[in-house]
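Bumping with the actual sequence this time:
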Amino acid sequence: MILFIILLILYFSFYNYLEKLKKENCNCALNQDHELIKKFTLFYIGFLILFPLIILLLLLFNKNYLNIFLKYINKNKKVIKIITLIIAIFYFYNVYKYIHTLDTTNCDCSKSNIRTFMYYYSIIVLFLDIIIELVLIASLFKKNKNLDELTNIILKKPKIELSNKNKKIINSKKKNIQDIISKSKSNKLSNKNKKLIKSKLSNIQNVLKKYKK
């Protein structure tokens, strides 16, 4: 939420700067890139306002739809990230190109601290977005352990592992069930109970395999 607020303040600053250039008739800054960046900045502002608002409304009025919405995002998160990064790369490339043009053409009426900040901010974000985009695309088409680990580090994806204590508990339960199965040969358990015990043993083995280092 804090990140959303910071980004919202940034994009509002960018939009106000672009709008100010138009109001002050800074003609050397009023080109096609100016209009394109202004529209995209407005799009980002709208997204940063609407997305949390949709989540909040769904949370208040219909939690079932919220769960469906979040599950859909989680299921397609990699593709969604790739698309949003492509849009971001396109936007920040145009911001960089626009500010660079203003600088090289000596457009004095466009000079401001916001312009300088936009220039360096676009370079940094553009560089990071391209790296993340390449890693994400590569991880989609090539199943590579090292690549997946790199993606997890960049996107801060948590790795789920069982603790040693929990592994010992599961192993202990597994041993108990195996003992019961061996005793069942002499005690003649019903087929239903035998199947139930074997099913539980199989589940424990699957859990151990899943979380095995």
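The tokens above came from a reply further down the thread. The mean pLDDT is 79.
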